[in-house]
Every structure is written in structure tokens, then in C-alpha cells.
Amino acid sequence: MGKDDMLTTWPFGTNLLATFGMVLCLTMAMPTFAQEAGKIPSGRAGLDYVAEIGNGRIHLLGADPAHNRQSYHNRKSFNLALNSSPSAIPGLHTGFSFYHDYLTFPDFGNYTESSSTILVAYLNSTYEFLNEVMLVHHTNIGLPSSNSLGAYSQMSGGFGSYRPYFRYACMNASASDQI
Question: Which of 9, 16, 97, 166 has fewest C-beta within 10 Å?
Fold first, then answer.
């Protein structure tokens, strides 16, 4: 998923671009050949969903990294997202995303990759609060699986035409993760 997909996966993405440019979970590139998105009848909860399927990514020398024409794994990658913008709290946006892919490396073998992301954002004309947590799980048969955790919090305030922000980000990559 890339910056262009952010507007469908996280419908409030245009507001988030004001201070940083892109949220953490959307920096992964997922070539998508099928996407379904829509509203879920949920009343004031303001639920919507995105479901995507693609050929995934590949890391073989000389290969097309986006798997545009074929899948080297004979399996598909997919992304599922559920978002909420409740009408009772204008400016609040929450979301959950789950991405699954198969990765192939010439020296490291085949891996499965699962990424779960939770986002909570509150935006109004003066303030912006962004919080996101991502858990990435890698598995390779015969090797220990690994979990890496990343997160950030960002606060921003508008002062006339200026919008300074403070951002704290952390990443706890597993020592056993070979990727």
C-alpha cells in the first residue's frame, strides 16, 4: 500500500498529510490488483472497510519487485482494514489493518509476514493527535519466528499559517528477525 492508496484505506488521510506526510502502516508497498471498499451500515459508528488482494512483494535479484505480472509464491497477499469515524465525536478516527504476505529471499528462504496496525487519530481545526502501533510477525519454517513492534505518537497545533508538531517514534525489532 502506498501514499496513493492511503486515501481509500484511511479516508481521513488527506488531513494527516498536514504534518508528516504518511502514516507508518501505509509505507509498505502492496501491489493491489483487486480492491473492495465501502461503508458498513453502522449508524453513528461511521464504519467502513477495505479489502485488497495482490501478488505481494519479492526480493529476488533481477525480479520485478512489485509482482505485477505473476506471483512467485503461488499465493496472494492481502490487506484488510476496518475504520471508524463516529459522528458523536467529530474528528476522531480509529482503524485496524491486517496485512499478510509471503516473502522470498535468495539467501534466507521463504517467509510469511503478517502486519497488524492500530491507528487512533483526533483532528480538528486547531489540533492533531496521531497514534499508531504496528506489530510485524515473520515466520520461516525451521527457524524461530520473530515479532517486531513499532509505534509513534504525534501532536500538532495550528498557529496561524504554521503547524509545528512533536513526534515520538520507537521501534523494537526482534534480534531473531533475519529480514
Answer: 166
Could you tell me which residues come within 8 angstroms of residue 39 by beta carbon, excluding any fewer than 6 positions away?
Answer: 47, 48
- Is 178 among the domain residues? no
Overall average pLDDT of the 120-128 stretch: 91
The predicted-structure confidence for 43-100, as pLDDT tens digits, reads as follows 999 999 999 887 766 655 566 555 555 555 567 788 899 999 999 999 999 999 999 8
DSSP helix/strand/coil, 18: coil
Which residue range(s) make up the domain with 166? Answer: 6-172
Encoded amino acid at 95, one letter: G
Q: Is residue 177 part of a domain?
A: no
Task: Tell me the one-letter amino acid at 45.
Answer: A
Residue 14 lies in a domain: yes
| 179 occurs within a structural domain | no
Q: How far is CA 31 from CA 11, 72, 76, 99, 123, in A?
A: 19, 14, 11, 12, 29
Q: Are 159 and 126 in contact (CB under 8 A)?
A: no
- Cβ neighbours, 10 Å, residue 32: 20
Q: What is the pLDDT of residue 150?
A: 93
